[in-house]
Amino acid sequence: MAKYVIAIDQGTTSSRAIIFDKAGSIIAVGQHEHEQIFPRAGWVEHDPMEIWNNTREVIGQALSKANLTRHDIEAVGITNQRETAVVWDRYTGIPVYNAIVWQDTRTQPIVDRLAADGGVERFKAKVGLPLATYFSGTKIVWILENVPGARAKANAGDLMFGTTDSWVLWNLTGGLEGGVHATDVTNASRTMFMDLGTLQWDDEILAAFGVPRSMLPEIRSSSEVYGFVNEHSLLREVPIAGILGDQQAATFGQAAFDQGEAKNTYGTGNFLIFNTGTEIVHSKNGLLTTLGYKLGDNAPHYALEGSIAVTGALVQWLRDNLGMITTSEEIETLAKTVDDNGGAYFVPAFSGLFAPYWRSDARGALVGLTRYVNKGHIARAALEATAFQTREVLDAVNADSGVPLTELKVDGGMIANNTLMQFQADIIGVPVVRPVVAETTALGAAYAAGLAVGFWSDLDELRANWQEDSRWTPQMDEEERNRQLRNWKKAVTKTFGWVDEDVV
């Protein structure tokens, strides 16, 4: 009987369970969206209990659609939204507060306080990250300082922290009944607490943040057996054997295993990851240094990352906040009603700007407006914003690596948009390549789990699974490309310095 691997993809907008066969093909998918909670401007939360309940539901959906049982599943892989922080009670299993999402900017005063001694790059030599609201470390501090009783409970050893991979793992392996409290190196590298060299929590940094080490999960590799699914689950006794943060998982699913290989994921935000091999490369151009993956006892692979906060989320905003479209797919149809952006540029700095600027004081701007501009131009400007932001990150990657990329592998929901993909190729000046299996995030988690249990033998077998689906080549001439980039950069500067003390 054929065997399969199931990946749990706990993302920003939904939780999914996807079953893969040995060829890396999708057999079945279960998916359930969860509520996006916005208590105030700049605050973004999720309900961890809703996420856990949805996780159980989507596992059942996927198994039912494929007519499979736990006996058909060799291993479970987990991938997740990386910087979203959950803090829960060790003895009740109940979160003390909603999960604070990676997009949330409420912790800027904590960032400023920590940066007062040494600047935003105070810990960057150790952790590869600047001080920013993006990462989970300051989110833990906020919970300890603002949830009544949390600080006392944490100091007593009663609280546990995890990114959503740890939350799902702990619950899947039994929760209060012996649940495993662990994370992998890729997720640990997004807290601001892990030393890139030792792959261990750094006590000096924890002391500076005021976070007790007892809250933190054990750091493990990305591919090993962490534990077994609890008896109360449909997957009981199946090993959980792979964990990768979503962007590293997508890179792994794209078979970008070697130094110099890269991918760009188009989701709620965009994330370009460039594999630097076993060498830690510190960016001089606004990129993050992060863990790429670590397989069992093998040496870790590192990466440079360009993180863009808002890409697909801008399309959702046009749909949900302005009602310009009724489904996300309609953005392409609307954009194709015009030939260009009509002079309009849309910089979606809704929660500040991430790479390569790292400007928390920026806010969104739609510039270049005239009476000529219509809905079609705005739709096109929204799509082009994704491509322009990617170009700026790619320029930084090329500068840091010294080896310009010759093509860009892409994945994520937005790559179904052919208009965007063509403009992306035009504005970066190199081909854009889409794989047959676009669900590379879940596939990467499945690969990590399958390798750990021998379902797949080695990386060469995984490379052989990768297949090209579509390729877009640049059609824009250099003069027009430079003109558009010049206007884009001018538009970006209009978003700077918007936030004052009395502006959220």
From TrEMBL:
Protein origin, superkingdom:
Bacteria
Binding residues for sn-glycerol 3-phosphate: T12, R82, E83, Y134, D246
Among its keywords, does the record have Cell inner membrane?
no
Keyword line: ATP-binding, Glycerol metabolism, Kinase, Nucleotide-binding, Transferase
**Which InterPro entries does the record associate with it?**
ATPase_NBD (IPR043129), Carb_kinase_FGGY (IPR000577), Carb_kinase_FGGY_CS (IPR018483), FGGY_C (IPR018485), FGGY_N (IPR018484), Glycerol_kin (IPR005999)
Pfam families cross-referenced by the UniProt entry: FGGY_C, FGGY_N
Question: What GO molecular function annotations does the UniProt record carry, in alphabetical order?
Answer: glycerol kinase activity
Q: Where does ADP bind?
A: T12, R16, T268, G312, G413, N417
Q: Where does ATP bind?
A: T12, T13, S14, T268, G312, Q316, G413
Q: What is its EC number?
A: 2.7.1.30
Name the SUPFAM superfamilies for this protein.
Answer: Actin-like ATPase domain
Q: Which reaction does it catalyse?
A: glycerol + ATP = sn-glycerol 3-phosphate + ADP + H(+)
Carbohydrate kinase FGGY N-terminal domain sequence ranges: 4-253
Q: Where does glycerol bind?
A: R82, E83, Y134, D246, Q247
Family recorded in the similarity comment = Belongs to the FGGY kinase family.
Name of the protein this chain belongs to: Glycerol kinase
Which species? Cryobacterium breve
